[in-house]
Amino acid sequence: MTELDPTLERWRLILGAAGEGVTCGAALSDQGAGRDAALDWLYERDGDYDRRDIRRTGGLGPSVVQAVDWLDEIHRLFPKATIERLERDAVQRFGLQEILTDPGVLERMEPNAELLGAVLRTKHLMNPEVLRMARRIVEQVVRELMERLAQEIRASFTGTRSRRPSRIPRAADFDFPKTVRANLSHYRPEERKLYVETAHFRGRTRRHVDNWQVILLVDQSGSMASSVIHSAVTAACLWNLPGIKTHLIAFDTEVVDLTHDVDDPVELLMRVQLGGGTDIGRAFAYAAQLVENPRRTIIACISDFYEGGSEHWLVRTAAALVAQGTTVLGLAALDEQADPAFDRAMGQRLADVGVHIGAMTPGELANFIASTIG
């Protein structure tokens, strides 16, 4: 039997068994058959295929493939970008989080924010050996996030450029328009070059921050995994900024003050337990007890706002905080995508009493805080 050409084989793999019509009787290559079996192991779980009367049937592989064997196969058969997509779908789309309790699986998976979220959801199922391996994943992803976000967040608090000249030549403060105007007499038309004899720089107006509180309330229900991760990293980046006192509070139906672990986001995340109900009103009430000076306090509640407790109490507590002068933010997401998914009716009720409702990246939250206290 002849083998499919690469283009037709690609379509056959995309369509699964429903694509047999494009093969014209030709067979998949050995590699194609292996890829087909690996895709079947994962995507035959998709109920949408049943609704559309599509069946993906196994290729040449065994009828039952263990997760660790499946990972070995996809790492052998697919490019890196495809591997990451397959791993993400296995954990997020099909809920195969139990594969993370196998040390062989964790050892092979690429550390990323999605995998970290899955680790946080399943760490209570892990034995000590797997938990040690999972901790290395947490450390690597947190380190990468810290490197990426710390500079962006701290830059919001370094001050703004003023119109006053500066004697300190810093590239970031280079005054391009003034430098060009001052050196126009040194322009050489025949060379089409402007020679700079005197460079000009602008000074910076340092932000003066005096005893502000930033209280982050983080919903640790399962759907908020990404926001929990970025909240921990954001709190760590804010922790040592002069003049800002940072608190980090996790909540479901109970409230847990994690502030003493803020400087160690890895340890903090290993303590978080995703899942359970939601009592946002209780979290607001706890935050109210922490407020020292209402007009110098920002409370940011990161939640999907599906309240499991008393909705009336939640709105009343938020309204009281706003009335006393506290700046209250309600963030439906705090991550690098900032894709909001939340109870819009509750969001509107909170907005009606003065809560700022939205979704932000960590950098946008830092800019908001800096502009509020600056």
UniProtKB/TrEMBL annotation:
Recorded hits in InterPro entries, A to Z, give:
LolB, Uncharacterised_CoxE, VWF_A, vWFA_dom_sf
Domain VWFA residues, every copy: 211-370
Organism superkingdom: Bacteria
- PANTHER family for the chain: OUTER MEMBRANE LOLAB LIPOPROTEIN INSERTION APPARATUS (PTHR30634), OUTER-MEMBRANE LIPOPROTEIN LOLB (PTHR30634:SF16)
Name of this chain's protein: VWA domain-containing protein
The taxonomy runs:
Bacteria, Bacillati, Actinomycetota, Actinomycetes, Mycobacteriales
